[in-house]
Amino acid sequence: EKIRIEILSFCLTDSRIASDETIQQLFVECRLNNAVVEETPLSLPKRTVGQRIHYNYSSVIYVDKANNQARREYLKAMLLKPDLHTESLQFTMVTDPMEYEQDLECEDIGLACVDLRDILQKQRDIIEEDIDVFDLQDDSTVIGKLKVTVEALHVLRAVYEECRDD
Asked: With helix as H, strand as E and coil as C, how does 99-149 read?
């Protein structure tokens, strides 16, 4: 009755983000249905192009009937109405200003998505896969690769069976 997420690492590609000196630290937010459900507890220093930032962060999003009915209903709606165009699970790369840069604020710079419907259709979880992170200022530009694990197949099957029983 849960979705397990691991945010393993991030690797910059040659983009405006890599050359932007004001971007020093990065962390990752994970959203389900536009609600932030998790974020990496640490922001880590930006590395050079091709080097990985290792978060090694693991978390669980509970979607049980008893305590998380709203999330479960969202999963049902997403599975029943594929035309909704809802991005299932969103990973946002966020800049975190250094402590001495109090005048700057955190800024969303990139977005990566995992479509939970794909996990159900392909009948396989995403295990340590690199997903593209797209620039929020130019969604045709990939700014990096985020290595993630999303284990959701078991709960998606259960929710899908509930949909068929209703």
From this structure: CCCCCCCCEEEEEEEECHHHHHHHCCCEEEEEEEEEECCCCCCEEEEEEEE
Pick from 108, 13, 6: which is nearest to 52 by CA?
Answer: 13
pLDDT in tens, 64-111: 989 998 888 888 888 887 666 666 799 999 999 877 777 778 999 999
pTM beyond cutoff 0.85: yes
CB hemisphere CA count around 145 (13 angstroms): 10
With tokens 């035309």, the residue in question is 83
69, with CB counted inside 10 A (0-12, 13-18, 19+), is exposed
pLDDT of residue 59: 93
Q: State the DSSP string of 61-97.
A: EE--TTT-HHHHHHHHHHHH-GGG---SEEEEEEE--
Q: Evaluate whether 37 touches 63 at the Cβ level (below 8 Å).
A: no
Segment 5-9 mean pLDDT: 97
Q: Which domains does the chain have, with CATH numbers?
A: 2-165 (2.60.40.150)
Scan for tokens 């690797």, then name that residue. Answer: 11
Structure confidence at residue 87 (pLDDT): 61
